[in-house]
Amino acid sequence: MSQTLSSHHEPHRTVADNYQLEIGRWTTGRNVLVFAALLGVIACVAGYFTNPARLFQSYLVAFAFTTLIGLGAFFFVMIQFLTGSAWSVTMRRIMENIMITLPVGLLLFIPIAMGLNEIYPWTNQQAVAADAVLRAKSSYLTPNWFLARTFIYFFLWSLWAGSIYHQSTKQDTERSVRQMHIASRWSAPGLFLAIAVGTLASYDWLMSLEPKWYSTIFGLVMLSGGSLSFFSVVTLVCLAFRRAGILKNSITEEHYHDLGKWLLALTSFYTYVAFSQYFLIWYSNLPEETIWYRHRMVGSWLPISLAMPFLRFIIPFSILLCRPAKRSLKLLGFMAVWSLVVEYIDLYWIVMPTYYKTGPQLHWLDLATLVTTVSICGLVFWSRFRKHKMVPVGDLRLQQSLHFENA
Fold first, then answer.
1. How many CA atoms are closer than 13 Å to the CA of 372, on its beta-carbon side?
2. Between 20 and 30 A from 169 (CA), which of 249, 271, 278, 352?
3. Of 164, 228, 216, which is closest to residue 191 (Cα–Cα)?
4. DSSP for residue 13
């Protein structure tokens, strides 16, 4: 088929998709992910014995990357239930399977817990005792309390995500409106958990890398970046399925158009909150706030800082703004990959200046840790297709989604 999708209305297709993934394809996907996970874990173990400090530093970037994508999925799945969204129903199981990777985040957090002393400066008791600002925060920034908070975060997210996922998959057989109502009731307080608890987690895991610095909007910046990455992953999964002949008739050009709209909207929203953070800090001109940006304008960090407005906003916004771009398979795929790569660069830019003051120091462990976390989360995501349908077939809005058209 043409890689540029037609903007004209097409007759509704009569050929139905198979909503159960073939066992052969599922097994192949599982084997690839297991192999990647094993390679990643072996490489990380080797890194632990050769360069443990760098392993933990690189791992933090990879852990934040995958966890923020899971949080983005958590937020938007609940939004779909609360708003009664119909357009996204054919893709919602893909979104739910990404959301259900959140519980494995507690397992992925184990290396962070092992490397607290290598990652966070507030674990150095001598440095804390010598600094009045760190002493004032010492009751909050303690290793035991830090680990306890992380456990609470993942426990709450797992409870809510698991409950919503259970109702969605139960509806496949019940085909009742009751499951939709139950999922909606879980989703209302769940939004608080996604935003408020996600903000606290961002403060703990990333902002406390420079414990003297603070920004009240930092959590929202991180969550908006994770949401953009989430929609990028959904777009790439849908395109990969389409290329394999899976869900070709259920996820139509109209759905891809809306995915393009979300990529554009979240690109704009991320830029808005990130610039708001920068502008407020620049305007107040307080040394304890401006120092964070100062650390990212030294040596070879400066070119990355200057490039971020172009990578994060100007280029993707200019490309995705027009309607034909949002209906082009090749361009949507390219922009989804672009957004994911830039999100990783952004997180690297947030984490690594803490340790390498003069510029980025690329290391093979950067790739090894990313492969590990992504493949493990990918394995959890993929395993869900073995038991459950690829589309929520019991959702009463499925037919409306199959015939969805953009205005």
1. 29
2. 249
3. 164
4. P
- Which tens digit of pLDDT belongs to each residue from 75-98? 999 999 999 999 999 999 999 999
Tally the residues of the chain: 407
Alpha-carbon distances of 282 from 215, 292, 293, 294, 353, rounded to whole Å: 12, 11, 9, 11, 19
Digit-coded pLDDT (tens) for 171-197: 999 999 999 999 999 999 999 999 999
State in Å, rounded, how far the first CA of the chain is from the last one: 24
What are 71's two structure tokens? 């949080």
* Angle (nearest 5°) at CA 384 between 379 and 387: 135
Are 384 and 164 contacting, i.e. CB atoms less than 8 angstroms apart?
no
Distance CA 101, CA 37 (A): 15
- CB count, 10 Å around CB of 194? 29
Whether the model clears a pTM of 0.90, i.e. scores above it, the answer is yes
- Residues 376 and 104: beta-carbon distance below 8 Å: yes
Mean pLDDT, rounded, for 282-289: 91
CA nearest neighbour of 346 among 313, 378, 376, 324: 313
What is the predicted pLDDT for the residue at 5? 42
Neighbours of 379 (CB within 10 A): 18
Q: Where is pLDDT greater, at 2 or 214?
A: 214
What is the sign, positive or negative, of the torsion defined by CA atoms of 190, 191, 196, 201? positive
Token pair, residue 392, equals 């929520």
Residue identified by tokens 């959140």 is 102
Apex CA 209: angle with CA 66 and CA 368, to 5°? 40
| Separation CA 181–CA 268 (nearest Å) | 32
Enclosing H/E stretch for 344? helix 329-351
Query: pLDDT tens digits for 127-139?
Result: 899 988 899 999 9
Distance CA 395, CA 177 (A): 8
- Which positions ≥6 away from 228 have C-beta within 8 Å? 72, 263, 266, 267, 270, 339, 343
Angstrom CA distances, 76 to 81, 85, 107, 367, 386, stand at 9, 11, 23, 28, 23
Cα 391 from chain centre: 21
Tens digits of residue pLDDT in 354-403: 999 999 999 999 999 999 999 999 999 999 999 899 999 999 999 999 99
Q: What percent of the chain has pLDDT over 90?
A: 90
**Tokens coding 361:** 């120091």
